[in-house]
Amino acid sequence: MDPKETSIPAMKDLTIDNITENTVLINSQGPDQRLTYVMERLVTHLHDFARETRLSTKEWMAALNFLVRVGQISSDVRHEFILLSDILGLSLLVDAIDHPKPPSSTEGSVLGPFHTHDPPTIEHGSSMSSDPQGEPCLVLCTVKDVKGNPIEGVKIDIWETDSTGHYDVQYKDLESPDGRCVIRSDKDGVFWFKAIVPVPYPIPHDGPVGQLLLLLKRHPWRPAHIHFMFEKPGWDHLITALYIRNDPYETSDAVFGVKQSLIVDFTSADAETAKKYGVKEGTKLLKHNFVLVGEKETEVLRDKNALAALKKLGRKVKLIDHLPVPDVD
Amino acid sequence: MDPKETSIPAMKDLTIDNITENTVLINSQGPDQRLTYVMERLVTHLHDFARETRLSTKEWMAALNFLVRVGQISSDVRHEFILLSDILGLSLLVDAIDHPKPPSSTEGSVLGPFHTHDPPTIEHGSSMSSDPQGEPCLVLCTVKDVKGNPIEGVKIDIWETDSTGHYDVQYKDLESPDGRCVIRSDKDGVFWFKAIVPVPYPIPHDGPVGQLLLLLKRHPWRPAHIHFMFEKPGWDHLITALYIRNDPYETSDAVFGVKQSLIVDFTSADAETAKKYGVKEGTKLLKHNFVLVGEKETEVLRDKNALAALKKLGRKVKLIDHLPVPDVD
């Protein structure tokens, strides 16, 4: 925007009809075009929401108090705003925008609020769960590129609940991480570990997000799954999960994470596999091949999708640092 | 919506293009039509915002962490989400929607985050401020209806900062409320009290809202004002403020609260007034007549405005408990 146009308007007597343009104008004084654009869209949608619902003072106050509670129940190990974003479908949407997937690559899923930054690094074949009540399983995986070449040295974060459907951080007396690990792929792209068969579980519903679900007559359940996160420089960061087929919540995941391509079947280890991997014959077995996409390829696809989508929305934009801003030239 | 239409869709493989309709559908299972409508508009705007900005995972995470901080700095005496709503123009907008004002009535202004529920009730003529550094002033007011009839027994909450621009609750060692009071209008609609001449002050900018203002190159200042809130059964709740003319921030209030009709002048008490009200001659004097609107009259006007505005927006609605919901019959 031309600097001459950004002089602050005389902001008096603001009304239902002119408050938006004035707020946008006063928010447009900074040099960061991306921030200006994001704030312009944010304020416009926020105000349109209030105008279209004729939001009452009572509802406004209830919403602001709700948001305070969402912030206040959050901690180092519980991010209630991520949970709120999850149940509103925003998390899935943002992941789909930021991590477009070409055909044959592994699709993304929601991060959820329970990823932590201090899991133990384990060797191939170790167990990531110490829950004696869990049904043991063997997980044999590879990580490759779209052409089938193995990718070595990928850092893989894996996390799942215990057999009661709780993550380690949900226990107040937790002494050390459990049900989570970091593992690295070998030169053949292989990584394997022992875990427990995942179970469906409700997302934490003892807080404000649970109250909202209750008001909306929605259940808080997620189908059984194991989370995976893949990181290696040069490769697009992949956050995903594997879901177990025929879970009762397969088609009604409270956080919208399930994708057909991420639904997997357990088989059981035959004698040879059992011997090779040091498990009992008949142990539940999960085999999966993950496919990563190059960072550059993802960037090109993301840019292309952004420009196409915004053109379709009738917005004239250009990309700065791969993010859209209005193209006013 | 017909119950048959609200069966949960098979929510798998949700994409940028279908996540919104599916989220809306799963949020539409409850019996509360107003909640369903508000959530439908909320989810639609939230998702459109992400699609129009192609919101990145990094920006999404930064926003969620910002919201956690807004919640966590909030307390019984600091509501950072109200402050956030204030600087985004939402507070002014909601007040304008909920409290429409017919001509000749007193306009509303923003509540702000510093109203408290425990101010001392004072007698007419008492002082609401004990700040010896403040410039004393005498405030003589009436509260009447639009026809000029006095309204007796209105509960009036009044609050202002001290001479340094801080509200009492901003002091950690506060022993008792200061700079705030409750007073009641007499049979002539009169209420009067002693205060100090208000000063401009910055809204609290040591928290996340202050950081946002900094990013946006916005100043945090509000022009000098005194807050007033009027309550009496049968009368529309009035939240307003009086602003002192020629304040340097008169046209750039950080929270968009100033209205021309709320800008007032100080005069000074002449000998007669000084004697009558027990102040020194020459004491700064503020006289103002407030005009309340009947609750019923406001309700009728609010309903009329809502229906007209939504018709203009092309939305077919009906009112339930005076709030719009889609009219699908």
Automatic annotation (TrEMBL), chains A, B:
Q: Which GO terms describe its molecular function?
A: catechol 1,2-dioxygenase activity; ferric iron binding
Q: Which residues cross the membrane?
A: none
Pfam families in UniProt:
Dioxygenase_C, Dioxygenase_N
Domain Catechol dioxygenase N-terminal, which positions? 32-104
Ribosomal protein as a keyword of this entry, yes or no, is: no
Keywords per UniProt = Dioxygenase, Iron, Metal-binding, Oxidoreductase
> What's the family?
Belongs to the intradiol ring-cleavage dioxygenase family.
Q: What is this protein identified as?
A: Uncharacterized protein
Organism name? Cudoniella acicularis
Q: What is the lineage of its organism?
A: Eukaryota, Fungi, Dikarya, Ascomycota, Pezizomycotina
